[in-house]
Amino acid sequence: MKEILVMGLAIMVTVLLVPTYGFADVATAKEISKDAQSEFTNEVEEAQLTDKSIEQKFETSKEMDGLGNVKYHDAIEIYGDEYKLFPTFDNVNYSLNQITKRCTSILTDMQNRYSIGPFNSTTVQNYIIYFWRYIQELDDEGDFSQNKKDEILLFSNFIDIFENEDANNEIISLIGTLNNESLSYDYRVSAVEELTAMVPYNTGAREGIGILQESVDNITIEDNENALLLSTAIPSSATVESYVGNKKFNVTKGVAYADKYATSGNVNKYSACRNDCTNFTSQIKHEGGVPTYKKFSQDGAWTYKVIHNTVYPTLEYTPRWCNSNKFGTFFGVKSKYSAKSYGSKYKAFVNFAAAIKKGSFISIDGTGDGSWDHSGFVSHVFHKGDNSRKSISYHGYKYKDFKVAQHSKNYNRWASDSNNDWEVQGSSVVYAIIK
């Protein structure tokens, strides 16, 4: 049984009968593998994939004015072309000080609730960890004043940019892995697939890495096809189910699961992630019929494993299962609706809402920085008793209403509900429908 990587999907090869070959044939198979490794090394050398420092301004949302400059400081170069990575704060300490002043209410509240000390460069990660729990608690308490809503939007946008430095460092580290010839061939091949999913969707970097990915796919396919014919000295017979991904998703099953577990999680089967939104959308995918992808230990997997199998089990998830950006890039984006492209966040939302269907997986990039930040699922588009979608007045426009099932905050609410936040985003928002 072999997995062949083609455009980010795994195609399982069905082998009905593999004849017995002598030791000479096994040696030939090893030579084929060596040829593939040599081809791969040559392709990587030709790509000349490196990281570099740059300095280009990034236009932040109006809500973030005054937090300090945000710039593109890191880029990659591949096949002679340069692509920006994620934008980061020019002066992180200055931005931290400004957030302290402008989000006083929620930061003070979090400090008192969770005893995590004053907000500063040392404690910022603790605040980020507790932030998603805090939002859920406020929703449960019904304590959402307009001031708190404004501060929450600003702080979530701050987190989006603040975490980009770690994302860039992870990409740069992976480039080092890819270029390290002392590491295993399989490990380096996996690094290419991971890079494709990790770089920004809006700077051309994904398309640049995609050229290398396509070349690697061709090498991997040829290597696996030859290895299946020559490498086994013992006869075997295997029929393996093909990985068909999204084609197996059943909307009716997905909606039934979302309706049942949106407000209270399926705690008898799944444990929560720190920010549980994408864990829940992955559950809907899987419970709707989409099989998991790869084994837990393999790079690029979309799956989970049970750590403690009790009445309330503890699970561990792969990044693609629990991370909104990696989930979105793995399954792919069907369509995007950018505030900058449409001229306003309101027009972007109206067009986004019009394209939504029952069973759509949806995502938000709050700052337009090229990383998907939050995921949800459209459970319904018709209000009870209606046979057409309800139009909702919205800042001089009208949008088609839709119901979102999500976690962090946990709810199953119409977009028109005052406590559904999908229509209340910053001026640089990008909406997406995920495949």
Structural class: alpha+beta
- The residue fraction in helices comes out at 40-55%
Largest sheet: 6 strands, antiparallel
Shape: globular
Q: What is the number of beta strands?
A: 18
Low-confidence stretches: 1-32, 227-243
Mean pLDDT: 87
Strand content: 15-25%
Rg for CA atoms: 24 Å
Total of helices: 14
Order of neighbouring strands in the sheet with most strands: 11-18-12-13-16-17
Distance between the termini: 28 Å
Tell me about this structure:
The chain is of the alpha+beta class and 435 residues long. It contains 14 helices and 18 strands. It has helices at 23-47, 92-102, 104-114, 124-141, 146-162, 164-179, 185-198, 205-230, 251-261, 277-287, 319-322, 324-331, 339-342, 345-355, and strands spanning 3-6, 9-12, 15-18, 50-57, 70-78, 81-84, 88-89, 236-238, 304-308, 314-317, 333-338, 361-365, 374-380, 391-394, 397-400, 403-406, 411-414, 430-434. Strands 11-18-12-13-16-17 form a six-stranded antiparallel beta sheet. Strand 12 and strand 13 form a beta hairpin. Helix 1 (23-47) runs antiparallel to helix 8. Mean pLDDT is 87; it is low at 1-32 and 227-243.
